[in-house]
Structures are given as C-alpha cells and as structure tokens.
Amino acid sequence: MRCPFCRHSDCRVIDSREVEDGQATRRRRSCAACGRRFTTVEEAVLAVLKRSGVTEQFSREKVVRGVRRACQGRPVDEDALQQLAHRVEEAVRAGGAAEIPSHEVGLAILGPLRELDEVAYLRFASVYRSFSSIEDFEKEIADLRRPAAGEAVEQRSGSSTG
Ligand SMILES: [Zn+2]
C-alpha cells in the first residue's frame, strides 16, 4: 500500500478493526517515510452479473436508487431505504457467492420492500417481473392479501440463518 502523500511504499499498519459486522476491515496506517497517517478499507468484492454479461460491483446506493423510484409519494423515509438496502446486501452476501446474477438482487429486494410498503412493492414487482396485464397485478395483490403463514409470530426477530 503506497502512501497517498509521498507515494512511499513502506507503510505500517498501526490499527485494524472490523466494520460493518466484519464485512470490511478498516486499517490505520503510518508511512515510514513521511510519518503521515491514513486509513484504508478492505472489503470483499461482491460482483453483480448483469444480463448483458457485464459484471459490476454490488452497490447499496444503486439498490436505494431503484427502490426510491418505486417509493415516490409513499411514506418511506431515507432511513428506511438505507435499512432496506442493508438487508438486501446482507441477504446477497449470505448467499456466499462472489458473483451473483442481477435478478437475484432484485429478488432480495422484493421481500423487505413488501414489508416496507405494499404499493411500492407492487410498483417494483411490476417492473422487475415485467407485469404485462392487469391479471398480473391482481394475482400479486391476492398474494399480498393472503395472510402469510405464521404471521402472528414476531417476524422482525432477526434472520435465523443456519
Ligand atoms: Zn508518506
């Protein structure tokens, strides 16, 4: 790692800590030549494979942008969007694959979005699943109306991965 100030290549790590629940490591470094300090963040790269065959780095911001569009005029605040994007990222990372198809990112968005706002969910699903008729909406709405199995059970008690 080169020093960003003097480009010297000998930099010592003086502190190292995990951030984002261990998904990234933040290191404090000190340059042996000029003595200045800087921070680096190491993160396992999660690639999204688009239908075009191009891969790009997973971006939480992109998830937020897509969902924000579906939430226009809905009582969903920025905080909720960020939380949703965080959940999507965790779900996607939990899959354990270094490269995931973009439609799986879309799938990971549907669940949390449905909990957040049903209208936004319908909008997002209509684009994502390319609804082509009113029947598609009707079917989806019927699904929304059907009480989920075990709905009485507290659902926000965390993801029980295992
Ligand atoms: Zn330096």
TrEMBL record:
Entry-linked HAMAP family: NrdR
UniProt domain ATP-cone: residue ranges: 46-136
Keywords: ATP-binding, DNA-binding, Metal-binding, Nucleotide-binding, Repressor, Transcription, Transcription regulation, Zinc, Zinc-finger
Cofactors: Zn(2+)
Sequence similarity: Belongs to the NrdR family.
Cited function: Negatively regulates transcription of bacterial ribonucleotide reductase nrd genes and operons by binding to NrdR-boxes.
Renumbered zinc finger spans (unnamed): 3-34
Note accompanying the cofactor annotation: Binds 1 zinc ion.
Protein name: Transcriptional repressor NrdR
UniProt cross-references to InterPro entries, sorted A to Z: ATP-cone_dom, NrdR-like_N, RNR_NrdR-like
